[in-house]
Design goal:
alpha/beta; 312 residues; 9 strands; 11 helices; binds D-malate; single chain
Length: 312
C-alpha cells in the first residue's frame, strides 16, 4: 500500500490525523475561521483534522513551533496578517516566514472593527479620538499581543490619533472580547468574525469598520473613511502553512482540499454572517499565497517603521 513513512511515497496521504495549529485562543477569530474549514477539508482529504490552539506572543509561539515540526503534512499552521508583521516587530523571531514555511493557500480576508465596552462615553469615532487624546493616561486598548492583527490595527489607530495608550495584551481576542463586554478594558480593534455577534446583540459599541466599503452584515457601522480616519485601513488575510521541505504533492493535496472547503456553501454562508467571504480558488494556491506574503512583509515593514515602532 502507498505510504509516506519516510520512503518519499505520498500517495497514501493522509494516513494519520492532521493537526491545524491556531496561534491564538480557542473561540477567537482565527480559531473560528479554522474550525469552519477543518471538517470540509478533512472530508476532501479523506482523513481527520484536529484543531490545536497554541497561544502566546502574538501568534509567534505557534509559528515558531510549526516551523520546527516534521515536514510531513501532518502539522499545518493557520496564520493571518501577523505572519507578515512579526519580522518588523520582533528582533529575535526565531523563524523566517519565507524560508521556514511552504505556503498552502490563502483562506479569507476579514474586515476589522473599532469596538468599545458598552458604557465608554464616546458615540462616534471622532468622539473616541477626542476622548483618548484627553484621557491618554487612563484609556486601555486591548490586543492579542505584539504581532496580532488587533495589535497592528491598534498601532495604526494610535498613530492616526497621535496618542500613546496603555495596551492590555491577551492570548487572543476571544478573551479580550469577553473583558470588553464585561467592561474590564475600554476598546480594541478586532475582526468581524469575532465582534459581529456582540455588535448585533448590542453588547459592545462599534465605531467603524476598517475597510473601504461597509460590511454587509453590519450595515449601520460606518467605514473609517466615512468616520473621519481614512488612514485606518486594514483587513486580516489568513493562510495555511506547512514546514518548509514538506513534499510538494502533499502541499497540493492540502491546497486542493482548501479550495473545496472554500467552495462549500455552508462555509460561504457562515463567513457571510460574520462579515467575510472565502478567497477565490485561484488565491487558495501556494503560489498566490507566497506572492501575497512577500508583498505584505514589505508593505507592513514600511508602515511599522514609518509609525516609529522598533522591533524588540
Ligand atoms: C485571534 O484569533 O485571537 C486573533 O486573530 C487575534 C488578533 O490577531 O488580533
Amino acid at each position: 500500500p502507498g505510504g509516506d513513512g519516510g520512503d518519499g511515497d505520498t500517495t497514501g496521504y493522509p494516513e494519520q490525523n492532521i493537526t491545524i495549529v491556531v496561534p491564538f485562543s480557542a473561540g477567537g477569530p482565527t480559531d473560528t475561521v479554522t474550525r469552519m474549514i477543518a471538517d470540509p477539508m478533512a472530508e476532501a482529504l479523506g482523513g481527520k483534522i484536529v484543531v490545536q490552539n497554541v497561544e502566546g506572543a502574538g501568534g509567534t509561539v505557534a509559528a515558531g513551533q510549526v516551523a520546527q515540526a516534521e515536514p510531513d503534512g501532518y502539522t499545518v499552521l493557520m496564520h493571518h496578517i501577523g505572519m507578515s508583521t512579526a519580522p518588523a516587530l520582533y528582533k529575535d523571531l526565531g523563524y523566517q516566514p519565507l524560508e521556514d514555511f511552504a505556503t498552502v493557500g490563502l483562506v479569507t480576508e476579514v474586515p476589522m472593527t473599532v469596538v468599545a465596552r458598552p458604557d465608554l462615553p464616546p458615540a462616534t469615532l471622532a468622539d473616541l479620538t477626542a476622548y483618548v487624546k484627553a484621557n491618554q493616561d487612563k484609556v486601555t486598548l486591548a490586543n492579542a499581543g505584539r504581532g496580532a492583527a488587533s495589535h497592528l490595527c491598534g498601532l495604526l489607530f494610535q498613530s492616526a490619533a497621535g496618542v500613546k495608550l496603555q495596551e492590555v495584551p491577551y492570548q487572543g481576542t476571544g478573551p479580550a472580547l469577553t473583558d470588553l463586554v464585561g467592561g474590564q478594558v475600554d476598546f480594541m480593534c478586532d475582526q468581524t468574525t469575532n465582534t459581529s455577534g456582540q455588535i448585533t446583540a448590542g453588547k459592545i459599541k462599534a465605531y467603524a469598520v476598517t475597510t473601504p466599503e461597509r460590511v454587509k452584515s453590519l450595515p449601520d457601522v460606518p467605514t473609517t473613511t466615512e468616520a473621519g480616519m481614512p488612514q485606518l485601513q486594514v483587513s486580516v488575510w489568513h493562510g495555511l502553512y506547512v514546514p518548509a521541505g514538506t513534499p510538494p504533492e502533499i502541499v497540493q493535496k492540502l491546497s486542493g482540499a482548501l479550495q473545496k472547503a472554500l467552495a462549500d456553501q455552508a462555509v460561504i454562508d457562515q463567513m457571510a454572517e460574520l462579515g467575510t467571504a472565502p478567497v477565490t480558488a485561484a488565491d487558495a494556491t501556494p503560489e498566490t499565497h507566497r506572492a501575497h506574503l512577500e508583498e505584505q512583509i514589505e508593505t507592513w515593514g514600511k508602515v511599522i517603521a514609518d509609525a516609529g515602532v522598533q522591533a524588540s
